[in-house]
Amino acid sequence: MLQRLYDWTLSLAQHRHALWALAIVSFVESSFFPIPPDIIMIPMIIARPNRAFLIAGIALISSVLGGLLGYGIGAFAYETIGQPILAALGKGDAMAAFATRFNDVGFWAVLVAGITPFPYKVITIMSGWTAMPLGTFIVTSILARGLRFFIVAALLWRFGAPIRNFIEKRLGLMFTLFVVLLLGGFMVVKVL
Predict the structure, then answer these.
(1) For the purposes of burial, counting CB atoms within 10 Å of the CB of 172, is it exposed (0-12), middle (13-18) or buried (19 or more)?
(2) For the chain, percent of residues with pLDDT exceeding 70
(3) The pTM is what?
(4) What is the number of domains present in the chain?
(5) Three-class DSSP labels, 47-65
């Protein structure tokens, strides 16, 4: 079933209303949809590189707005909607322990989930559930999703289709390594 959903999402990139499809997928991916918007975004930018940054901007705005829906699910409907979504993603059992530490590192949690392959929807729901300050959530979401979408757009705009394999297979790893190095650097500075 997931493969069919993936194929259907990919086919939206060819549709004449692809920008609207990207906006919808970016919105719902931030709160419950399992397929990331990159699946639509990458072929759209390869087909029309002159629109790379417009496409990234639409993904950013829609993703942050969808993140607010995820935040709302966590804040107002965690028991009925949020918990089943997180359980379906295999994150249900660790929620109580995670919630106690979440707001201490909330900025970093949103940043990491926003730019790495970690499911952003988990963090949006958790942010609402743990009552993370909404301003912190919004600013961090804009920063994280902006980095992710605009780096992909810039790479595709600059290098075109040959960079596609790197983006699809290794960019998530590169983002993750960047975050690990960044956090490690902060830890070293804190200790010294």
Answers:
(1) middle
(2) 76
(3) 0.76
(4) 1
(5) HCHHHHHHHHHHHHHHHHH
